[in-house]
Amino acid sequence: MRGGISRFPLCAADGAALPVLALLAALLLGGLMPLVPKAGAADGAPVWTNLYNGPSNNFDLAQAIAVDSAGNVVVTGATASSGDDFDYVTVKYLADGTPLWTNYFIGQVGGWDVASAIAVDSADNVFVTGYSVGSYTGNDYATIKYLADGTPVWTNRYNTAWTNFASVTINGDDGARAITVDSAGNVFVTGYSSSTNNTYLYDYATIKYRADGTPLWTNRYNGPDDSGDGANSIAVDSAGNAFVAGISKGDYVTIKYLADGTPAWTNRYNGPGNGDDTANALAVDSAGNVFVTGESIGSGTAGSDYATIKYLADGTPAWTNRYSGQTNGGDLARALAVDSAGNVVVTGYSDRGDGTSNNYVTIKYLANGTPAWTNLYNGPGNGYDNAYALAVDRAGNVFVTGESIGGNSYVDCATIKYLADGTPVWTNIYNSPANFNDGARAIAADSAGNVFVAGFTISTNGYPDYVTLKYSAPTSPPVPVALPGGDGSLFRFRFDTLLGKLYTVEYKDSLSDTNWQAQQSLPGVHAAQTVTNLPPPPPGVTTRFFRVKEE
Q1: Which pTM value belongs to this model?
Q2: Residue 510, Cβ density class (10 Å: 0-12 exposed, 13-18 middle, ≥19 buried)
């Protein structure tokens, strides 16, 4: 691209499956051929809303959500089958909102079967877990694998049983609260399980299943003094190591297990108030560092605080950040997510101190623990606003959802998008046609930045139904335009970008070449971006092809 005569020819798509492909216009000698950009749809626009009312026209509550590689969404929770009986019900919707399949799981003896967590593997298989009444065994873990088309593959139950001093078999209560899947399709489940030493207390119980359902190992954790212990969250790193966190004798307890089940380390955290500290959420970054958050009693007369901790992969505590809220009252973090740079975002609620209201509070910490921003959300009803769930997309945008008092004094689903720098982009309120209570419990984002929310909505019969919402991502940027370099020796090009998106500039030296080479990456800024210092082609090559790919 020397001498000011090289061109950026129009490049045809080469068949690669790309979310967005922006191609450079041809630069002819003596002038530019700019392309007219197309107008984009609004970021955060409601795309579809799906309600699910179970067969008994009774109680239905979505608890968890996951998105697969194609942008399809799967939701799980519980449906009232008859009387006081509940069943798992898992529903899959295509990306366009079309219902694909619905699966029920009815336990061994009826009773309460409630799904609490869901995960999807790289092959789009679906895994659901929760608790299920067993046949004379109390509540058990019940974990199910479905193929992407909804076909049930296997169901595994976990029951704690032991023989007492009178040689009588005792079956305890066990409930799974969290699930995750590693890159090989192995499944990890954790929760609470009756202690074999004291039937009124619980231990952590963490299980690893192979993709075919074969149990590989089970690890239990019983804290000091045979105290009550329960795990609330689980994550797995790229090496297949598993991390769990919850509460044990009033402290956060975070445990790392190697892929083979060997305990690597256990860390306890006791807050300054020496009261009950409960870890509610956990995540792991690409380097195997672990982040935990929840609620922790402050010192003196203070109420509970957010307490967020980073541990290095070897268990070394890196930093601890506390958030004591607006009035030093009650503050509780429920959810946590880590972005691609190792920054962590937490959300929950903070007491405003007037005795009648809370706000969403969302905080971002940089990887080194430095607070980056804190955002409060007070809904239109100036009442209770409680954030339940959080997601971060590939561009570092943050999505928060929960329930918020609306203008009619009932709660609505309130979902917010923040840019990576904390700038609020949009807030969407969902108030059902019945104009009654609606609440979000789970959120997920797909690879394009579309957002899915699941929870409940009170129908006209007075019972809750599942509600699943989809909000749109920003649309594609316009095609870029090539410009001559300022010194006449190199070309550059400029194109409009969307704030919150990531773009990669790629090149190749022949249209027949199927391999594009990455030249640089840049974030969108809702303005014209200029890419400079493009590499010249090698000797003998007179044309180099460039494209911009939206990640």
Answers
A1: 0.82
A2: exposed
